[in-house]
Amino acid sequence: MNELNSAPSPYSVLEDSRILSERPLFSVIVAVYAVEKYITSTLKSFARQDIDESKVEYIIVDDGSPDNAAQAAVKFARKHRNVLVVQKPNGGVGQTRQLGLHLARGEWVTAVDPDDLLKSNYFSEAQRFLDADTDKKIAILSSRVLITDGTTGRFKDSHPLGAKFRRGNRVVSMLEEPSAIQMGATVFMQVDVLRKHKLTFDSRICPTFEDGNLVCRYLAHFENPLVGLLSTSHYYYRKRSDSSSLVQSSWLKPERYTVVPRLGYLPALRYAQERLGYTPDWLANIILYDLMWYFKEDEKMGSVVAAISSELKKEFMEQAHEIFTYISVEQVLRMPLNKPSWRLRESIIRGFNLDKAPARIFKWSTREDGTRNFSMLVAPGKHDIVIYSGGEPIEVIPEGVTNRLYFDEVLAVEYTLNLPDVPTAFFVDGIPCGPAKSLPAREKKGSQEYADNITTIIRAGQHVDGKLAKILERLRVIAGIQNRSVLAIAGIKGWEYLQRLWSRNDISSDESIRQQVSTFTSSGKSQKYEQAWLILDHADRADDNGEHLYRYILQHRSDINAYFLLERDSKDWERLEAEGFKLLEYGSIEAMAAAQNAEIVASSDAVEECIYPAPRRIFGNPDYKFVFLQHGITKDDISRWLNGKKIDLVVAATEAEYRAFTWIESPYEYKSSQVCLAGFPRYDNLYHLVCSRTIKNESVKNILIMPTWRQDLKTELSECTSTAEEVAVIQDSSFYKNWWAVLNNATIQQGIADGKIRVQMMTHPSFGNILEHLPQPHGIEFLSPSKVAFQPLMNEADLFVTDYSSLAFDCAFMGTPVAYFQFDRDRVLSGAHTYRKGYFDYFEQGLGPVLLEEEDAAQWVMQSVEGGCVMDDEYAQRRLQTFKYLDGNNSERVVQAIEKLVSGTVFNNVADEQIRAEIKL
Known about the structure:
Blueprint (H helix, E strand, L loop, with lengths): L11 E5 L9 E7 L3 H12 L8 E7 L6 H9 L5 E5 L5 H11 L4 E4 L5 E2 L3 H11 L5 E12 L5 E2 L13 E4 L14 E3 H6 L13 H10 L6 E14 L6 H4 L5 H22 L4 H19 L10 H14 L5 H5 L8 H10 L7 E8 L4 E8 L6 E5 L2 E3 L5 E7 L2 E12 L3 E5 L2 E3 L15 H12 L6 H16 L3 H17 L7 H13 L10 E4 L8 H12 L5 E5 L6 H7 L3 E3 L3 H9 L2 E4 L4 H4 L4 H4 L5 E4 L10 H4 L6 E4 L2 H8 L12 E3 L4 H10 L9 E6 L4 H8 L4 H9 L2 H11 L1 H8 L3 E6 L17 E4 L6 H7 L2 E4 L4 H7 L4 E4 L3 H4 L13 H4 L4 E2 L2 H13 L6 H10 L7 H14 L8 H8 L2
Parallel strand pairs: 2-3, 2-5, 3-4, 7-11, 20-21, 20-23, 21-22, 23-24, 24-25, 25-26, 27-28, 27-30, 28-29, 30-31, 31-32
Antiparallel strand pairs: 1-4, 5-10, 6-11, 7-8, 7-10, 9-11, 12-13, 13-17, 14-15, 14-18, 16-17, 18-19
Helix pairs in contact: 1-2, 6-8, 8-10, 14-15, 16-19, 17-24, 17-35, 27-33
């Protein structure tokens, strides 16, 4: 650990305008690096401070910036009497703040980031607190952080640690209110305490928590740390729109998963253990607050955590296990800040061995048949589970088994149970486990009396901003963020206000929509939609499972009151209308009224607009059942996207997919009753297309190529400002280089020239208009997904080549040979591009060969053509094992499953009997 009084980093003084004969009350450290376009606004907010300049010194440390940020600081220093500007070689924010702390002369030290802003009374309010503390007992001061949009300048009180300020300016004991934590460098700490105990920033900690680590070690020197909550001192944190700030971008850095826990969290916990002999609740809250962001990030479908290596995940989890040896189960259960979901909380308790009981039981609601739902969470591994009902042991088959997986480690296994609603006892490994209970109130450990007295003094002289002052402060923040004058912002805001006045009666407002739907319903026009089935694929297009399911109902089930939802300007509207579909315009008042009366909404997508055609922000949660028809067979792990959505029934097409949704080692939360193994409705048409095929006389074979997209390309393209930049990004990508190498391969080109093959490539929508600016390989026909129908295209294909697309299943269903060209599989399958590997293994379960090189792909195409485009025996056998049904009755089975959902009974999944035998408790 570097000591405060050790030799500082080498630096040079660029400007020093301070009055050195007086010790200031506050030293403000500003660590500067590459913030030229932001720092001027920060310096202006310094200049607006209403405290005497002699009370504050600004220590601006330029960390070897590649821009002119230091020059802006020097210019500022020459106009004020309290600024020191120094420059040092680049070494990171920890080392930079460490130098600033070494140079600090004030009684209290704090930090401000050079892209953020301060309210004009930021330091004068802090001084008022300290003046009231005549016995010098306050340990730290904590200012109020307001999240500020980096583009518009609008701010809101949404910081996760902001609740403690909502009771106004006050002083509290952290022993009695351990949620009153602050871990950023914006806290005010006593310089003399830091020097006495040789405390400073650990420059090795990056990219975050170097400040949190210091705050934790600093507070460990106070038996009863008092914190002054500066509710009226506003710190405006700029949330950059490009996510380039240190905190926002830190998830992409390996050190976040290694250095931060190893050098940040663990030393703070050990330090407190050495000083105090235990982990105080306030310290546990700091560590848990920060640590929960990791697990919550991993819960996201598009999380960057998916892209880190398995080695990084393993190292992070090893350190997490050690961290939780310092934290008790009571501290996790009482966690007041950044609260995890109950399942994440229970997974932590189980996975990190915090609870002596081997399982926790949760009792839920009763069903219509009088039985009751239970959840039982146990640590991973085999357990002897015995359940007594009414005093007798009973045989129990879970309705679902879900693995709670974090950073590739199973922390807990959740069993979903349905049991008789009579007294029930659970024994796990011979130990009785009762239902989870709430903890008693936390025992108070410190005196609040002195803090209350200070609070009374502070509030007695508290000034509350009037409306005009609040408006002016808001204008100043917006002006600072946008780098404009206050007068210009005031003019813009005035014009926006007038526009809002003119548009008050805008019919698109939520209240207006609600009233129109209510009027439509009260008129009796919505009665025809009572107990209706509303089916859709997407709001703007059809041609998926929804369309095919509706077609079956239209032709065979006239007794079902069904309608198809679609935007009127969709390319599919006229086609479906001519076929006789009863179309409802998506987004119309009538469609929303229909959704209010429907008993079923079914869609091939599970995005918000498909689940809620009557937006829930307007109408709340609906009464209908939602059926997820799926777009393709789910082979990857998308549990983080699906879990928590309002889905009453999921349609599966393969037994492996069905098992993955519901049973052993599943990351999904579905019960067996929520998944029907019925097959996809669109497969009915594929079946009939195959049955009606005639022998082709043409010697030319159709090769259909359909690659998936890449997340890194999407990110890079979103940052481009011109077509030329987009083209350069595409051409520099491994995606382009490898796929274009296949298209330009001499063997492929010779096959085209000889008339043996016709090559069609379906481009991803993300290509947009870039394709026309790229070199066009000879003889390749590029297709746009918005202009062609997929099923006729697949029916004409003799071979199908993709990398990771689930449409390989569709082609294999039809008997078409497929191959996977996975030139970047090591990167993608290890988590890159936010991909999360599921149950599916391309080598063991793939329906065609995995090809790694351009030449391999070209050779497979031509060898398959020479062999007559017939599926190899190995993959033909896998095809039979993969699909539970190779017939044209999928829509019929799906309708039966939906009818059972409506009636409250369960669809008979033919795979259940064997699976239930495997998981019987």
